[in-house]
Amino acid sequence: MGSNPTLSVRRGVAQFGRALALGARCRRFKSCRPDLDYIILQQLIMQIFLDTADINEIRKRWDTGIITGVTTNPTLVRKVGGNYRDLAIAIIEEFPEIESLSLELNGQTKEDFMRDMGEFACIGHPSVTLKVPCTVEGLKFVTHCADNGVPTNVTLCFSAAQAVMAGLSGATYISPFVGRMNDNSMSGVELVRAISGLYRQHGVATKVLAASLRDAHHVSRCLLYGADIVTLPPSTFDKMYNSVLTREGLEIFNNDFKEMPSQ
Fold it and tell me: Which residues pair with residue 128 across a beta bridge?
């Protein structure tokens, strides 16, 4: 398989961000010289991923041209049934242009994650992004992956402090859980704002991937407050189009079209 320029830049971004955070003191970062203008441009383009393991739900929405990635977790996979690796392969085969496919690893320690990563690494597609929790062992694994150019997604993030540690570890993505924060009387949107501001203040290249989003209002607020990406359940994605005023306005226009003389 040939090299993928987008993947190369994405890996460079994660490594460059980590180099900045560490003061570029580590020898391994001396060869990392990504195109900074391109990196800045990429950081300014908002993206939407779908949060689902149901390939039929992806298929229904992919031709909008809006979706660039997919996130999954064991709960979503269990709902659709089947083997996790086979599902990942099926998604990649049908949507080969996908930028990122987050696949959660099973384990508690760095060694567990190292063993499980082989299940997905052998797929051999640049979109494969290994997803681990924001724990000490998870971030040890992330550091290993950053040093070896492997994309990672740090999940189950509920504080800016956790995001600091993920950024310093060289994570490609950090996933604050907005909806679950709101369920527990805390503002998930404010967490996104804190993480985004912190990363930009210190030049951390880890992308903020706002997750657990259940309504369109929170999606737009997360993007306003600096999220690079939002990952949406299919139902929330569909809600993004909806407005009663649009429906009412369209009904008026359609009725007026009917009253116009035929050409």
Answer: 101
Q: Is 177 helix (H, G, I), strand (E, B) or coil?
A: strand
pTM (predicted TM-score): 0.81
131 is an active site residue: yes
Q: Are 168 and 203 in contact (CB under 8 A)?
A: no
How big is the CA angle at 221 (ends 218 and 224), to the nearest 5 degrees?
A: 155
The catalytically annotated residue of 60, 79, 131, 140 is 131
Q: How far apart are CA 171 and CA 130, in angstroms?
A: 10
Domain count, the chain: 1
Q: Which domain holds residue 162?
A: 5-259
pLDDT per residue as tens digits for the range 73-110: 999 999 999 999 999 999 999 999 999 999 999 999 99
**Number of other residues whose CB lies within 10 A of the CB of residue 70:** 28
Confirm if 204 and 17 have CB atoms less than 8 A apart.
Answer: yes
How far apart are alpha carbons 178 and 187 in whole angstroms?
Answer: 7
Q: What is the pLDDT of residues 218-259, one digit of tens each?
A: 999 999 999 999 999 999 999 999 989 999 999 999 999 999
The CATH number of residue 147's host domain is: 3.20.20.70
